[in-house]
Amino acid sequence: MKILSILYVVFLKPGKGELVICSPSKQPELFFAVLGGLGQFGIITNARIVLESAPQQVSEFRPPSCEELVGMEKLALRSDFAGVRNCSWQLLTTLKLRGTFDFAMDSFAGCLACQVRWIRAIYTDFQSFTRDQEMLISQPSTTETFDYVEGFVIINNDNPFNGWKSVPFAPEQLNRSMIPEDAGSVMYYIELTKGFDSIDIHAMEQVRIIFLRLAFSQRILLRKNLENENTCQHLGITSLPTNLNCMCTYGAVGNPCRKWRRCSHP
Amino acid sequence: MLAPLNYIQSLRFTTDVSYFQFLNRIHDVELSLSSHGLWDVPHPWLNLFIPRSSILEFNTKVFKQLINQDFSGPIVVYPVNRDKYVFMKNLLQISHPLLHFFLRTQLLVFQPCRFFCFLFDSNSNFPCRWDNQASAVIPEESMFYLVAFLRNALPSSGPSLKSQMDDNSKILSMCHDISCKQYFPTYNNPAQWEQHFGSQWQNFLELKQTFDPHAILAPGQNIFQRNQILASPS
Q: Do domains B43-185 and B186-234 have the same CATH topology?
């Protein structure tokens, strides 16, 4: 995928009548005059735009090795509740390894292609907010930094479009009790992203493998509950027969690749 | 990379999305607003460039005092390095309507910082000396803030379009004191334009003389009158 990066050449009919091709190096005076020129210098009939490569796709997911599958199984066995143990054991022994892997892939194919970490962080103090923004856009080009930095003013109320409720990616992550008492009539938040391809790939890979393991054993648990005990209408949202914290999918069965969140069951 | 930042630790939110999903995020907002009938409504938007030295004052006088609980729409605030911005901003004021619309959309959708870094770190053909040759008007300081009040006038509730536009004028009148520049201004006479262009006015005049001496193009901006005999540059 390519994205628009910068205007490079314009084909222009200036007020004098002739067709002119200009660029930063060819007829630069006219080229720059017309940018921001409010239509005063010419009519752009054609423009050439340079494209920038999008961050690379995360490379094709590698099937877990036999050792890793055994590791997942051990992980599942270490869990304290019987559901996981029984269920995962059952699945791993009855399904062929390849089939098991497909089962996991089915759940996480979408997540594995994730490429942008998207962060929002709230400030109550405007000076800290601007100081941080300025620091972020003033990094030398040799320093690893974020790909995108923006900021917003939000109203200190629960309006879903410009109050504090507009900040979290899932509405239930933020409620009124979490808003600091010193917050004034407005607050601020900074928005950042970082493409995965430019973070430490090795670290991301480790996270991904660990995540897959966790998700994998949990998914088996959920599947078992769903099929055998018929207690979950939607994967992981309610009715897990356990009192432990667990990673739950956030979405329906047919659309399993959603955000993961930690939830606790009474 | 987050370590040096002073946000409220418990109020950080993170998600992982595909690159496309991030780029396309405004589309999701559009769908959500459309479904509530809040998309095809008047948008009395106000876009400003505030010099860095005035942003704290702007916060005290505008964000803290003029923004009410019933303000509807997002407010964007972020700093920009002048040298990295000049070229990009010029693009956004290009007069060709289609291209302009396209680029304007990109401003909302794409990643400004990524653009700027790409442009100026990897391409030495575009040195900063163009600052003074380009037509666009931004504050003089090396860093300035983009502040955008992206309001919508809701049909059934909230402040009326008229009162929102009055609010905008109130903000603008505040801005005269702090030498900020409006992005997409509308002025009715050359004197106001001259004030807007400030030190760039003479240069703008000379360029007009050179490339459109009979003032044929775009008279609707009220900068020059068609067939006006432009004074020769001094």
A: no
Residues present in chain B in total: 234
A66-115, pLDDT tens digit by residue?
A: 454 455 545 444 433 233 333 333 333 333 333 333 333 333 333 334 46
Decide if B18 and A116 are in contact by the 8 Å CB cutoff: yes
Mean pLDDT calculated for residue range A57-64: 41
Range B43-185 classified under CATH 3.30.70.1150: no
| pLDDT for res A163 | 92
> What pTM value is reported for the model?
0.65
Helix segments in B36-160, DSSP class H: 55-58, 82-92, 97-109, 112-122
Q: In chain A, pLDDT over 70 holds for what percent of residues?
A: 42
Give the largest Cα separation in chain A, rounded.
84
Residue A223 to residue B74: CA distance in whole angstroms = 42
Say if residues A120 and A89 touch (Cβ distance below 8 Å). Answer: no
∠ CA(A117), CA(A121), CA(A124), 5° rounding?
170
Nearest by CB to residue A137, choosing from B4, B17, B81, is B81
Mean pLDDT of B42-63: 93
Give the integer Cα–Cα distance in Å for A220 and A88. Answer: 6
- A74: alpha, beta or left, given left = phi > 0 and alpha = psi -120 to 50? alpha
From B157, B98, B125, select the one nearest A31 (Cα to Cα). Answer: B125
Q: How far is A95 from chain B (nearest CA, A)?
A: 31
The more confident residue out of A56 and B181 is B181
Q: Which of B19, B67, B94 sits opposite A54 (nearest CB)?
A: B19
Ordered by start, the domain boundaries in chain B are 43-185, 186-234
Q: Per-residue pLDDT tens for A116-125? A: 888 999 999 9
Q: What's the mean per-residue pLDDT of chain A?
A: 60
Domains of chain A: 2-53 (3.30.465.10), 66-102+207-264 (no CATH), 116-198 (no CATH)
The answer to whether A116 faces chain B, any CB pair under 8 Å, is yes
CATH number, domain B186-234: 3.30.43.10
| Contact residues, A window 151-180, toward B, CB-based 8 Å cutoff | 151-155, 157, 161-162, 166-169, 173-174, 178, 180
Instruction: For chains A and B, count residue pairs whose Cβ atoms are closer than 8 Å.
Output: 272
